[in-house]
Amino acid sequence: MALTRISLELTNLCRKGCAFCYNASDPRGGTTWTDDEIVALAEDCARNGVTAISFGGGEPLEYPGLFNLLTRLRGTLARTLTTHGLLLDPATIDRLVAVAPEKIHLSIHQPARLPEVHRVLASVHELAARGIPSGINLLVARSQLPAAITAASILRDAGIDAARIVYLPMRGRDTPTPDELAKVAGGPRFQSMTCLLRCAASPRFCSIGWDRGVAWCSYTRTRNPLRAPTHAALLATLENLGLTYCGEPDALPRPRLTVLA
Q: In whole angstroms, how far apart are CA 51 and each of 34, 128, 212, 230?
């Protein structure tokens, strides 16, 4: 096993509290991490071949120590974060520019809500203008395919190309098939989850929850607790860890598409 990328949920605190959230984040959430533990884990992982860490949640901008982490880990490994963007006011963008994360992903959870689509689009343009690489995660539900197709068209017409859009299928319920996702993306080549065509663990990636549960991906319920904030403990936790498919059975992948990872 040669991990190169890890995803770490800083908190399950999120003011949106979406009913479909894979880790049940809501405004009452919290965390089990300290800044020092996260830095220790990231630095030890970097010494052992990990090149990138992605901070998520919940909402990472609601984690009090986020900017401390981004500052302390600058130059150690690539730092990215995924946010709903509601907190990206001018002052917050100024702080992000100062700590220079390698990339920020903004999520569109409700493509049927055009104000949300245009809000995220404006934030992505603003971040890019300030020198921060950015992209969009577009959540696609089977019951909302027409709305997702419209939202994706708006993004592409606004200059957000395929390299900056990740099409994420809803997990747990209302899961689109890979073919349906391709219709939203407007063609057979698009970015999505690396497991879209086949549910399988990647030896290069793992996810660590706000509660320290370790899994092969962010969505599966098959998890083991991380005993210590070290690379060795992380590998030990992953050893013999299973993986349960996180979508609906009738949306099981059929390998007919080319997905840009």
A: 21, 23, 20, 15
Calpha distance 176→144 (Å, rounded) = 9
Chain centroid to CA 162: how far?
A: 17
Say how far apart CA 24 and CA 184 lie, in whole Å. Answer: 26
Instruction: Indicate the residue type of 131.
Output: G
How many alpha carbons lie under 13 Å from residue 251 in its C-beta half-sphere?
23
Check: CB of residue 69 under 8 Å from CB of residue 98.
no
Confidence of residue 199 (pLDDT cuts 50, 70, 90): confident
- Please give the domain boundaries of the chain with CATH numbers for all domains: 5-259 (3.20.20.70)
Report the predicted TM-score, pTM, of the whole model to 2 decimal places.
0.90
β-bridge mates for residue 189, sequence order: 258
Name the residue with higher pLDDT: 227 or 251.
227
Please report the pLDDT score of residue 27 as a whole number. 85
Of the candidates 53, 59, 55, 54, the residue with the CA atom closest to the CA atom of residue 12: 59
CB under 8 A, 24+ apart: contacts of 43-46: 43/73, 43/76, 44/229, 44/230, 44/231, 45/3, 45/6, 45/77, 45/231, 45/234, 46/76, 46/77
Is residue 251 scored above 90 in pLDDT? Answer: no
What's the 3-state SS for 206-242? EEECCCCEEECCCCCCCCEECCCCCHHHHHHHHCCCC
- What b/e readout covers 154-175, taking b as 16+ CB neighbours within 10 angstroms? bbeeeebeeebbbbbbbbeebb
Whether residue 162 contacts residue 128, with contact meaning beta carbons closer than 8 Å, is answered with: no
